[in-house]
Design goal:
The structure holds 2 protein chains of 2 kinds.
Chain A (H helix, E strand, L loop, with lengths): L2 E5 L4 H16 L3 E6 L1 H8 L4 E4 L12 H31 L3 E5 L3 H10 L2 E6 L13 H17 L16 E4 L3 H4 L8 E3 L23 E6 L9 H11 L6 E6 L12 E4 L4 H4 L5 E4 L3 H9 L4 E3 L6 H11 L2 E3 L7 H13 L1 H17 L1 H15 L8
Parallel strand pairs in A: 1-2, 1-4, 2-3, 4-5, 5-6, 6-7, 8-9, 8-11, 9-10, 11-12, 12-13
Helix pairs in contact in A: 1-13, 3-4, 3-5, 7-11, 11-12
Chain B lengths: L28 H6 L9 H13 L3 H4 L16 H15 L3 H6 L3 H5 L3 H9 L2
Classes of the chains: A alpha/beta, B mainly alpha.
């Protein structure tokens, strides 16, 4: 049995897969503690979980798009969050004495603390933002990311230039995807591509099981948890797109009702859905390309229409389009006629469902949260002696 | 109902064209002079706007709102696959290397790029 400290971010898309991995670790007999904002984590991890609170403060730039959004991710969130939490995470590593630290790819304080204390650490990559080195042909942007990482290295009072890339553990990188989705990328041997770490969210009061129409093509539309205020125009265009399909399509829009105009009978608007319960009954998902939504859908072999908004979503959209499991459209621009054509294509043309099925099979073979836990346990066992130096 | 390419953006105002010059996508001597166009009849601005329209799958109404002051990132929200497509088209037509031109720009450098810079790249080859 080993002890793991999970260092995570106050973002539901990051915490939910980490929760699935934590549950798998516990199922395999290991001990788990968390470092993160307690107000955010506690309702998710339950009253008995060990949480080392790091505090939480507001971060800027969440409405930004394009290059401004990338700037905001690093300069408005990753760097200030790591600096803000560094002391608390460092104390957590000292106090809990884990055999390995599991660090969200963008929770760099965990990597710094583990490195400083000579504890083995693994990167958990719940997004597509770094894994395939999307800026390899933009050296100025990669250099800017490295400057941000160097500023964190210095803030942790570590000497010289960063000895490791804080986004990629030299011991183990657990990536929640497979090459069926990323394409044939030559990943190093210490990368474990385990596929999505799925776990149904606890059924909250806001969650609604939508009534499914038995004889209709069922399409779920969701643009994620952080983009509701950007969603209104997209929802308007989707409703217009679906209007001529009203006799054979049932649309379920997952959204705060405020960002959806009045809807006709063939459309349901629900604030949240138990996705894993609903997905087996869906014919297509229209989404923004958040890694969780996209991979949960693909794990059920459901083809996608992806309308990426920002950050890693264009990367997911590209991967989905290349794999043949869906169609990429523009969240900001694509007009109703083209949205309708995309929905019709992924529901009419079996090649999309076939391609989604191939990804589904590769995800199932990769093992998900249980495989992640197994690799983490191997790392912890390997480093149980004092020999591992970072 | 559809509010088009500026309809979904957050409340940040669209970039206004410079007030001292009237930019349009019609042949415009002022535009040609300001962007360093060498041949008045080649009209690279019109060609660049047409390419942008093609890579984004947009229509004439959209294209008519694109002008030299339009920001590639924050106004057009061009995505990397669209930039890659534009690169191929500009290389074929103007024999220029758009991706090379972008490679050493940091994020601030990307954020300040305008349609006029694409025209400049095309005519300065």
């Amino acid at each position: 049995m080993s002890r793991f400290l999970l260092v995570t971010l106050p973002l539901s898309g990051h915490v939910h897969p980490a929760l699935a991995v934590a549950r798998a670790l516990a199922d395999q007999g290991h001990e788990v503690a968390w470092a993160g904002p307690e107000g955010f984590l506690r309702p998710l991890v339950g009253p008995d979980a060990v949480v080392y609170p790091t505090g939480l403060r507001p971060y800027r730039g969440q409405r930004d798009l394009g290059a401004r959004a990338l700037k905001a991710v690093w300069e408005g969130f990753v760097v200030p969050y790591a600096k803000f939490t560094l002391r608390a995470v460092d104390a957590a590593v000292r106090d809990y004495q884990p055999d390995a630290v599991v660090v969200d790819q963008h929770a760099c304080a965990g990597a710094l603390a583990a490195h400083r204390h000579g504890v083995a650490w693994a990167t958990l990559a719940p997004s597509a933002m770094e894994l395939t080195r999307p800026f390899r042909d933009r050296p100025a942007i990669e250099a800017w990311i490295h400057r941000n990482l160097a500023s964190l290295w210095a803030a942790a009072d570590l000497p010289g230039e960063p000895a490791v890339d804080l986004r990629f553990s030299p011991h183990l990188v657990v990536a929640l995807t497979t090459t069926a989705l990323t394409g044939p990328v030559p990943f190093p041997d210490h990368y474990a591509l385990v596929g999505p770490a799925l776990a149904e969210r606890p059924l909250e009061p806001a969650m609604v099981r939508p009534e499914l129409a038995p004889d209709r093509t069922r399409v779920l539309i969701t643009v994620g948890t952080i983009a509701q205020d950007l969603a209104t125009g997209f929802h308007e265009r989707m409703l217009e797109a679906l209007e001529p399909l009203r006799d054979w399509v049932q649309a379920i829009i997952v959204s705060a009702p405020a960002s959806v105009p009045p809807v006709p009978d063939h459309v349901r608007v629900v604030p949240r859905v138990p996705m894993l319960e609903v997905l087996p009954h869906l014919d297509a998902v229209v989404c923004h390309g958040g890694m969780n939504t996209a991979c949960e859908s693909l794990a059920h072999g459901v083809p996608l229409v992806v309308a990426p908004i920002k950050n890693d979503q264009p990367i997911i959209a590209e991967q989905v389009a290349r794999s043949g499991a869906g169609i990429r459209v523009s969240f900001h621009r694509t007009r109703p006629a083209a949205l309708r054509a995309a929905v019709r294509a992924v529901t009419d043309d079996p090649s999309y469902r076939d391609a989604a099925g191939r990804i589904q099979a590769s995800f199932a073979a990769a093992g998900g949260a249980a495989a992640a836990a197994k690799r983490l346990a191997e790392l912890a066992a390997r480093s149980a002696g004092p020999s591992l130096t970072p | 109902m559809d509010r088009g390419w500026l309809g979904n953006r957050p409340s940040r105002p669209a970039t206004a064209p410079p007030t001292d010059t009237v930019w349009t996508v019609e042949p415009n001597p002022a535009a040609a002079a300001a962007t360093g166009a060498v041949a008045a009849d080649s009209d690279p601005l019109r060609e660049i706007v047409a390419m942008l329209r093609e890579v984004t799958g947009e229509d004439e109404a959209w294209a008519s709102r694109v002008n030299p002051a339009t920001l590639l990132d924050q106004d057009l929200l061009l995505e990397s696959f669209e930039v890659a497509d534009l690169h191929e088209r500009m290389r074929a037509r103007f024999d220029v290397d758009l991706l090379g031109f972008l490679a050493n720009r940091d994020l601030d450098g990307i954020l300040e790029l305008r349609v006029a810079d694409l025209v400049g790249l095309a005519v300065d080859r």
